[in-house]
Amino acid sequence: MIKGSEWRKWNFHVHTKGTNKNDQFTSRNIDEFFSIFFKKAIENGIEAIGITDYFSLDRYKDAIQYVLDIDSKINEITQHKLFSEKEISTIKKMFLFPNVELRMLPSTDRARLINIHCIFNPTYVPHLENDFFGHLSNQDGIKMNRHGLIEYGKRLDTNLSTDQLRYKKGIDNYTIDLKSLKELIANNKNFKDNCIIVVSNSNNDGASAIQKHYDLFENEDGSLDGLRKSIYQISNCIFSTNGKDINYFLGKRLEETEGYNEEIYKKEVEDVIRDRGSLKPCLVGCDSHSEETLFTKFTWIKSDLTFEGLRQICFEPEQRVKIKASKPDFKEDKVVIEKVKFMSQSKKFKNEEIHLNPNLNVIIGGKSSGKSILLFSIAKTLLPDQEILKNDNDEEKYNLLSLDSDFNFEVTTKAGLSQFLFRDPNENSIIPDIKYIPQNYLVKLAEPEINKKGKPLNKLVRDLINEDADSKSKYDSFITNVKQFDKDREDKINKYFDLLDKVEKLNEELKTKSNKEVLDTNINSNTTKVEELNKEAGLNEEELTKYKELQEKDNKNKERSEDIKHDYKLTKDFINISIEKIQELKKLKSEFISNLKDVKFSAYYKEKLSLIDTIENQLNELQKEIIFIKNEEGNTVFSHSNVFKTKMEEIKSEKTQIFTDLTPFTRNEDIQKQIKILNESIQTDKKLLLEIESLSKQITDKKTSIKTYKTEIFDLYDNVYNEYQKVIEELKDRTIELEKDGLKIEGISQINFSKIYKSIYQISDGRKAHYRNYEKLLDLNKKSTDSFVYVEIKQELIKIFDSIMDGTYAVLPSTNKKNAIKILLEDYFFDYWKITFKNDKLGEMSTGKASFVILMLIIGLSKSKSPILIDQPEDNLDNRSITKDLVNYLKNKKLERQIIVVTHNSNIVVNADAENIVIANQKGQNDTESTSEYHFDYTNGAIENSKQIDKNETDLLKSMGVREHIAEIVEGGKEAFILREKKYRFIKNIS
Hints:
48% of the residues lie in helices and 13% in strands. The protein is built from 34 helices and 24 strands. Strand 13 and strand 14 form a beta hairpin.
């Protein structure tokens, strides 16, 4: 099961029984020791072990021999095998490599020698006797091989009787000369390619003695001697778990300090490379000298279990090395694609599983090799909405069944869930929020005007921001509020003009009424005549006074009767409207309670809102009270007792009494007829006066309401603008996280000036062109993104409003004032999301750079941790943008989400340090024919997987390693490897 570079536990520094110094192992023999040794390695999940000893490979060779003989190892007491078949299989897969520990003069700060470690490629071991042990010497010129060490021990103590004692004496005192090691590295490329030098940092020895490496640099006052500096220059790694060391050697000493930025980081990296030779990873090993301490410490390394895999930590010291307890780069199993598989009985496609890495997977291959088909098949299997799979002609890019009628495709997650491409349509996707970015998709988004496809950029950004459920909820609430304000504003405008119409009608009605002064004169004149007629009829002063009182009382009675009729109609209308409203409210309440998911909430609000039902019942009762019916006599009467009935009966009774009281004053029939006519005239005139007063009051009140409505209309306009301001502020947190990638999203409330200009222009009388008088708002040259001051815009709107209303702003005859005002006060605002990347505005970028920024937006704003599938993201990007921007972005984002990329670009493959390379091939599409049984064939592996081209192998994909495929297929692949390794002074030939 090959998934490319994977995280594994490595132990770089483990001594074994028989070590040349400080041997505290208590096992009876080497077999017993290695039994404990390997069982502890398995127990601790260790997969790679650096067998360490001073100036010697003997213990490493012991371990290798033990593994070779492991099938025959038995327990002396039980005579059973020491290891189970599973354990044997695990041990044989372990990567054992030699770690030769050296000491160097002069002494460190506390009279301790400097210790360095040489980790070797196991395949280079046969050459070490000549290239290494037989080459290095001490200050006396004595070689470091076994013969030299024995001679050195003999020279130190002539009394030693055996070579073993002399060898031990030589080991205990031997120190190498740095000059000879530097010469070896400089002059023997084979040695340099197969050795990784690590500087120790223990309490007893190391380049900086008991101080941590960084502490020594920080306190350096010129005392850091040239020897130590030279050692750091030739070293590739550091043995240290100190946090300051780790950050310093990665060029990140100042990370998380105030004002830290990319320029500071670059400067730090340059300083470390200049002063220490290169960025370096920090490693740890258990440095065991007893069984109790075996494998108590380890380092996580992301690589194949090979020396070439280990070598990658020199190129990627930060992302391929971690010192921590838990496995790095955690991702949930449910959002990681573990493997995929074509199902093709005709062998059109390879039927074997293709395993994927949780981080960055890169699919490469020649033209029409099946790269994009593989990515497309994954997307088609998992995407719920497959609109993005279609070309401009609305057809899918690949008709997979036309390639193979029996075709199917299977995707399996790390959680063990599998799904087929062709399945029951009712079966939901196992990873529904996967992201698929097909070839040229980003370009279409970057150039919507040219391609006539895709969304405008601002809508794209808004939609991406709202992918987050909380943000979408806030934005939906914003839309609801704005729509409600728009509706309320339109209602207010309608009412505003309704009032204007009513005022006009009232004025017209008022004109039909008699003159108030004339009516007053008539009333006074007729009242005088009535008095004179009453005197003529023989009424004395007392009777005249009484008569006047009764006449006034009768007039009041009639007024009250009219008032009751008015109030009855008003009450009836109010009750009817209220019943309609309460029924709507009751429906809303019912929907609200039924949508609540918590039963307790439902019960609580059902009880609290029961007053709505109470009000409805009360209104129904009130409605019944005032209904009229026909009684047995055929008269219209109230069906129930009510305040109107009581009041009307009271007025009727009073009217009867007044009539009775007036009877004695009607002695002269002719005179009384005249008095009656005059009184009726007086009553009519008084009624007309009341009507005039009522109309005048209504006109005054409505004019006041008209002013109020205008204020409220613009208050609602304020509310709309404030809603835009509010939602932008609420969504700000969604965009802040992207700033670490150099991407800034600034939300701004904008006015669509071109839209409002066009809308007003279309209703304006062009002959008078009054729109030219309002340049702050109505300017043809203004862009939608131009800045503005809201207060000034509002003042301009009010001026236009007033001018339309008083007629000084001429609109077309086909447009009435109401529609003109509605058009003027439409919501022309929009939430504008200003995108800048390293001080460049998105709308002003090249297509290629804009495409990259959109990719950053799509990935960065997505809350999902599901895989991202990208087909050739490098399209339209210049090489600098790929090398600098896209590569770094992919390197960072692959730690958060699984990424699967189809590419032709070597920088994405090599410099993004892709964990898994999938190589695709189609028969007949290459100069070299393949004998593979599959028309579309695939293989995969880590970037460090290297195998020289085998010209005898006719299956193309099997004929070379992954590294060689990259160099051959991807444009600039070979150069990319060379540049990558040159950067770290660690160059290896690529054939």
